[in-house]
Amino acid sequence: MAEGKREKHRKLLKQRILYVSAKDFLEHGYTDTTMRGIAEKCHVSSGAVTNLYDSKEDILCGLVQLVIERQFAVTGQLLDGVTDDSVLLYASETVLQLHIAELNENLRELYCNAYSLPKPTALLQQAVTGRMESLFKDHLPGLGTKDFYKLEIASGGIMRGFMIVPCSMWFTMEEKVKAFLETSLAVYRVPEEKIREAIAFVERFDFVKIAQEKLDGIVRYLEEKQQEVF
After folding, report:
1. Distant-in-sequence, close-in-space partners of 69: CB < 8 Å, separation ≥ 6
2. Residue 54 has pLDDT above 50, yes or no
3. Which of 69, 101, 202, 209 could form a disulfide with 111 if both were Cys (CB 3.0 to 4.6 A apart)?
């Protein structure tokens, strides 16, 4: 196989692995999905998979990167022409995340692992630190990137804490969203009046529907990518 074709095949095999892994994570959960099972469904050897991804954690990193990019895009489209307020944008992005994690227990497990395992956690912290600095720099002009990194460690911990607890009749999604925004926005020193505005703002959107559409869109995107070679 020529070098160019080999590299193209390698790139597209990575897409196939991401697609198969995402399907397995969603259907069977992160813990019960195995590298061997992924290889079998990709119709390649286990070595072919580990040559591209050392572990499930590395595969999860690939999915996290995709989710981050598409999450920012989805909320950007949602709020285009509605508001450019950075606090309201942050509220919308994070509330969407909470709703995605609530779609099913396998998704909850996946998100909690993304916020717990070393590699995806580091990836999230790096990406979200930059995002938070861009959103809150004008609000907190005296802070630098290292300061926003520390704040992201705190707000990321808050996000994981709220994600891991399922909604119930005793703790509804409305209550979860309110409590999350009150605590996470306080980390970024947002005034109480603005926090109340953010809570009221996100109530305008059907995040249950948006979350399902985003999840479907990611799976569809991965499926289309892997079909380019298989």
Report:
1. none
2. yes
3. 101
